[in-house]
Automatic annotation (TrEMBL):
Belongs to the peptidase S1C family. InterPro entries: Chloro_Bact_Ser_Proteases, PDZ, PDZ_sf, Peptidase_S1_PA, Peptidase_S1_PA_chymotrypsin, Peptidase_S1C. Keywords: Hydrolase, Membrane, Protease, Transmembrane, Transmembrane helix. GO terms for molecular function: serine-type endopeptidase activity. This is PDZ domain-containing protein. The chain crosses the membrane at residues 71-96.
Amino acid sequence: MEGENTYARMAAGPGQPGPEGAEPGAVTGAGAGEAERLPDETPGSGVPAPAATADGDQAPAGRRDRARRRLAALALVALGALVGAIAGTAATLAWIGPARYRPVPLPPPVPARPVVYSGQADVVQIYKQAAPAVVQILTPTGTGSGFIFDPAGYILTNNHVVEGARTVRVLLDDGREVTGRVLGVDPGNDVAVVAAQAGPAPLPTLPLGDSDAVQPGEPAIAIGFPLDEGKSVTAGIISGTGRVSERVNDWTLSGLIQTDAAINPGNSGGPLMNAAGQVIGINTLIASPVRGFTGIGFAVPINAVRAVLPDLLAGRRVEHPWLGIGGIPLNPQIADDLGLQVTSGILVQKVYPGTAAEEAGLRPAVQRPDGEWVGGDVITAIDGRALRDVAQLQSYLASRRVGDRVRLTVRRGDQTLTVEATLTARPEREALR
């Protein structure tokens, strides 16, 4: 019949009898406006509705049941929407999570690559190989460094480290402290040899390189005991070669290797090495106004040490060839002030008696009462090699021996002379005072 309530049919079922006097399947209740009410249950609850009372209070109860049913339905819809939203969000997070939120594993650490110099050993490896042969030398007046160059215990160091001592204490790498005997010294090169009395077992050694092959810009590694802080290594480059130092032991050292590898008090006597771990020099001094390293250090070239090593091992006095002059380098301003005809060379200011300079008849300049120098020979070359300053002269003489003949080119006034002389031995410093 038209207007039939689906929910009513489902509740009563087709062919089920209704209340007494009603047609099967007919709508029963309080009127057409309430046709959708289920007569036998509380709306939305599935619980049978209370029976009607005799006084007819069933209608208000039915309205309350319908309201509850609607609210329950709305609640179910809202709950379903909420559950769906949460499920969708979870699904979304589950999908995007691995890319956005899961930590990305880092790659394993890459092993540090060693600093390689010219395809040869790195500083770490050089130190490991060289350190056992580097020793500390202790004297009553201070400490210094040295290195073993012969497995029998022969050590090279600076003369100024052991000056005045016959024996010293030597601290070996294995912790032993042994006695060292000073075999020979060379104040002119600031080098000395010490024999460590360490027993019959051979000691670790350092190989000697070729300092003549050293070029500016090459790597330089220094090992020693700076400031009594323990064995240390520093690295830098060769800054220059053929340098002349300030006066050491009253003599000017020449032919020195300059480096910016840090050298401090206590490094004296230690090795300066190349990238192959070979000794190219003996660290000797620094140029600094504060008695600390400022970037300029010097080492005695190892080839100069080789030349005197036989004498040092034998305990003989080392003789250095000497021209026997005192002088200053010329420059255009000095030449102009003195009225000289040449602008470069060495102006002779003093000639020592009994020397090659006296034999050659060199004439020194004369200082007037007002302090000006007048006259004097200018040495412009030795054995055909042009001279600009005293450093060049000393470097050349270091390659010669006492008794060798040399040829000097001299400018005297407006004349150019060539004279010869025999090199004599440089006297002890006391002889010049």
